[in-house]
Amino acid sequence: MQTDIPLREAMQNFQPSDEWKLEQGLAGVELHLLDQTINDVNGDIPGSKGDAVPVTRKIDYKLAADELPGWEGYVEWEDYPDKKRRAHEILASQEFPPPPEFQLAAIPGTNPVLEGIRWKLWHRAIGGRLAVVPEESWAIVLKEKSPDMLHLLQFPYNGEPPKRLVTVQPITPNPLHFVRNHGGIPSIDQSAWFLRLDGLVKEPKRLTLTDLQDESRFPRMERLVTVQCSGTRRIEQITLYAGEGDEMINAPWAEGAIGTARYVGISLKKVIKYCGGLVDNAKHLELVGADTYFKMNEVMNYAISVPYSKVKANEVMLVWEMNGEPLPKIHGAPVRAVVMGYIGARSVKWLYRVTAISEPTRAPVQSREYLYFNQQVGKHNQRWVDGIQIQEMPVSSAIMSPWNKQVVIHAGKIEVKGWAYSGGGRWPERVEVSADGGFSWYAVPVENLSPKHKFAWRTWHMWLPCDVEGWIEIVVRCWDNSLNTQPIEIRNAWNWGLHVTSSAHRIRVYSVNKAKERTRARLWEFEKRGISFVPITRPTEFPFMTWEEYEEHFKQSGPRDVDE
Q1: Considering just the CA atoms, what is the radius of gyration of the chain in Å?
Q2: Quick check: helix, strand or coil at residue 543?
């Protein structure tokens, strides 16, 4: 060999080493903006650069204090407009990091998945009592929730059980029930707690827990209720197309952001009646929680509203017991609201105030968040009025087993398990599963469905016929008692806020049918040699057949090519 000739021609590497990731959309967070309406397409927005306007950092260490003895972590904002103004000035005077990128970049493989650093910094910026709320809240999470929980967001806490535990029981154990918090977790002594009822009621009242538990005034209620976050299965929308990316509002929920519990309490309707009823054309009830909420440099108590028609139907409960135990702190103790059939965001935790109003509240969680947009509405053009305020949950379902991309060895039938639910007082009437992507459907046998309840899910399981081998798509859809069902494709459910993933749930699994003789023999070869069959992408390092078998095949079938 001539030593003066290079073995390989030198490359001029004009392309950055990671550009292929950008080209293939594997690092979308780093992609530059392509503005084809201007000549200089370099990713910069004209006028976006300039000197920052200097601001003076404001601090008020005494602004946030516990409002009442025995109400730790509760700071009242709604009664003090001047305090809200000062809090706004503090937040506006400081710079905070942007939310973490978990849609156009890889979702962290940690638990907690996301930390919620912005929310922690907002609490610390206000200072006072709020400065230590993130740490206090996390301590409550570790005490009250199962160590198996997937912590999607450390603060405000958002967590769900792993798929293997979601439907193990038709009633979700308290430590495994999902939690979707919007702020810190107050610790309120039940003997100090009271409920304020005001606004457009004939006789405003202040009622203690003892008052609410007086059955001579308020008949006791017990209901089995499924609470579901509007973000359930959001990870499917994120995987398809990125949308709005607030780490709390748009947390990357999987299929476990749903849970069913037996609640004990009273009907809010009876409490309103005890106050003499509504006056002056009141049509809505604003429910306010003791947690502190942040939105666009504004500080407030968490608040939503429900129409009085919902209350009149005895579908809004004030509860203090969950699955035979006192309501856990993390789930809203001493008293929370449970709004049956609505998204979980309406079931206010740490409830302390109910105000009768004539219109839906303008609080951001009701008016500016939890909105369902048309697919052409997004960051470039969205307005609050373009989105439908989400109340009742539509029909939905999910597969808990097998898991997506799992290799399943079976003998002609695959065991599939999951849940099905419909909001608004409707219930799953039929659950159907497909092994061919949604072309042919098999109904889950009635005996394999948990009992019907007006406001609760049904868990299900079935042995799904499957002769096919290789990659298949298993799909589930639900029909409720009003014959509502689910769109087949996730594209039909996608929206900018990434809410309400109501499409049929589909997973891809690698089917290995052991009922087939050749498959059975090949699996035995792997077992005999002590070689793992997974991952399936790993090349097989032993002969697939003998040369005698190879030659015999072509003797029987003829050569690969022919001459004429």
Answers
A1: 28
A2: coil
pLDDT of residue 87: 96
Residues 6+ apart with CB under 8 A from 526: 532, 533
| Helices marked H in 359-460 | 364-367
The structure tokens 């303008």 sit at 362
pLDDT per residue over 126-181, tens digit each?
999 999 999 999 999 999 999 999 999 999 999 999 999 999 999 999 999 999 99
- What is the token pair recorded at 463? 């042995």
Task: Give the residue-averaged pLDDT of 106-121.
Answer: 94
Q: Which two tokens stand for residue 480?
A: 């409720």
Cis preceding linkage at 394, omega within 30: no
What are the DSSP E strand ranges found in 58-189? 71-72, 150-153, 158-160, 179-180, 187-188
Residue from 102, 256, 270, 54 nearest 165 by CA: 256
- The Cα–Cα gap between 272 and 361 comes to 18
pLDDT at 10 over 60: no
Would the pLDDT of 54 be above 70? Answer: no
Rounded to whole angstroms, what are the CA distances from 483 to 261, 432, 479, 536?
26, 13, 5, 40
CA distance 478 to 419: 9
- Evaluate the CA torsion angle 30, 35, 36, 38 in order and state its sign: negative
Average pLDDT, the chain: 92
Helices (H) and strands (E) in the chain — how many of each?
12, 25
Peptide linkage before 326 cis (omega within 30 of 0): no
The C-alpha torsion from 95 through 98 and 99 to 103, rounded to 10°, is 180
Sheet strands (E) in 238-315:
258-267, 284-295, 298-307
CA distances for 402 relative to 164, 316, 355, 398, 464, angstroms: 9, 36, 46, 11, 11
* H-helix segments, 368-430: none
Q: How confident is the model at residue 563 (pLDDT cuts 50, 70, 90)?
A: confident
Q: How far does the chain reach from its first CA to its final CA, in angstroms?
A: 45
pLDDT in tens, 273-286: 999 999 999 999 99
**Rounded Cα distance, 540 and 393, in Å:** 48
* Structure-block tokens of residue 160: 């769900």
What is the predicted pLDDT for the residue at 11?
Answer: 43
Residue with tokens 């912590």: 151
Question: Could you tell me which residues come within 8 angstroms of residue 101 by beta carbon, excluding any fewer than 6 positions away?
Answer: 29, 245
Neighbours of 27 (CB within 10 A): 16
Provide the token pair at 539. Answer: 């090349």
Task: Give the E-state strand segments of 381-424 in sequence order.
Answer: 388-389, 396-401, 407-410, 413-421
